[in-house]
Hints:
Layout: H1 2-21, H2 41-51, E1 68-72, E2 75-78, E3 83-86, H3 99-109, H4 121-132, E4 138-144, H5 147-161, E5 168-171, H6 180-184, H7 187-190, E6 199-201, E7 204-206, E8 211-214, H8 227-247, E9 254-258, H9 273-283, E10 287-291, E11 318-321, E12 332-337, H10 338-344, H11 359-374, H12 377-398, E13 402-408, E14 411-419, E15 424-425, H13 427-441, E16 443-444, E17 446-448, E18 454-457, H14 465-482
Parallel strand pairs: 3-16, 5-8, 5-9, 9-10, 10-11
Antiparallel strand pairs: 1-2, 2-3, 4-12, 6-7, 11-12, 13-14, 14-15, 14-18, 17-18
Helix pairs in contact: 1-3, 3-11, 4-11, 5-10, 8-9, 12-14, 13-14
Amino acid sequence: YLIMTEFLSIGLFFGTSLWFLNRKKHIECPDTLFQPQSTSKEEVRELRLKNFCKKVSISYSNTGGLMIVGGYGSKLIDETGKTYLDTRNNVCHIGHQHPKVVQAVQQQVATLNTNSRYLHPNVAILAERLVSLLPDPLEVVFFVNSGSEANDLALRLARVHAGGSRNTIVVDRAYHGHTLATIEISPYKFESCSEVTLIQNGPFKTPGKHIWKVPCPDVYRGPHTDSKTAGKLYADYVNQACDAYESRGESVSAFIIESGMSVAGVVLPPPGYLKHAVGCVRNVGGLFIADEVQTGFGRFGTSYWGFQHNNDDVVPDIVTMGKPFGNGMPLAAVATTRKVAEAFETIGPEYFNTFGGNPVCAAAGLAVLDTIESEGLQAKAAEIGAYLKAGFMKLKVRLEIIGDVRGCGLFLGIELIRAEETLAPATEETAFICSKLKEKHAILTSIDGTYDNVLVIKPPMVFSKGDADDFMDGFETVVLEDLALVDDILSISRTPT
Length: 497
């Protein structure tokens, strides 16, 4: 059995290596990656509709959906063998089916996978490696399975540190997860669902007096658009929240913000924002939680972590991370200070997570960290991200539909509008462009933002200049040739991505 396992592992590894190395040549799907499916796309769709809750959406359902059965590098493959360029999948951070991750997972799962109470070198070494990538005094790590779970645990840590206070300052349009606790701190969720009862708390309605919402620090659509002054002005709303809780004789547990707000339409905190906002929060005893689930591990290019982007010299008290860490394997983490961890140790019950940091997922995490370093993927994100951003800025001069190009590295947002004077969102146009990119150019994109009018670019970090050129060429062609022929744009249905 072990000999056969090793034989299969070696064969798959070398096969994977050959096609993965070809990713730079921008070729069609290698035959070895495509296997005809015994169940048709129509049968799969029917089974899903039969057995899944209707709230579990299907990407591109307005055009029949996609059945993805394989992938390599920055490409995904459907059941017919057609290859798509993936501009949106930050889960497979270092590329779909990266051979280093494939090999690490195969070897470890053939040896052992068990719960995290046993001593095992993988998770211990992974913790040490992670701490080495974080600034002092972040030195204690908890391993979990998802970003939602990481943010849920971060709230627990903050509340214990605050002596039981649940008062949390959150940012409008934020998304931090799907547990009950994280829905409460996610305006993107709690403002559109009926399972949470909202009450007036300060200027906005929130899930309770313990949740205070502040405006999103958006320098394109928000009230403060001058990047030189916006940071301090948006931070003043956080200061007002702190003052309000103090006036009630209450303390603040935490201020939580995504280092790059993806669902909000790629909003990055402006310079000075974190410095002033976190200063206010710490003055009233609260902690700063940086949600790095979307942006961590070098995606910004200019920095390894998103919270370092504007060089405000603000180190979070808690950092959460998820999606990219395991390159598709369920691996996430919470990093915090010794002081916060010691407060958590006083609450009584142990903290135990059955599969958080299990040997197989930890092996994947180690392979991801190794590859980011050995392949220079942070520098690559800076280079290709700058190339993409400059390219879309040139397109903006020629295409009036582009209102804003923003972001950093391989975390970019292209906001589409109908008129520069009003910033009227081009919601239906964005849906049309997204669908046509898939149908005519085999390019997969993501739509986000308050008005569903922002193309969010967050591809695997192996995205190449050739990939960037294909994306920009396809986008320009759809806008100039296809969108121009649409008579009734308002009749276009939404494209779920």
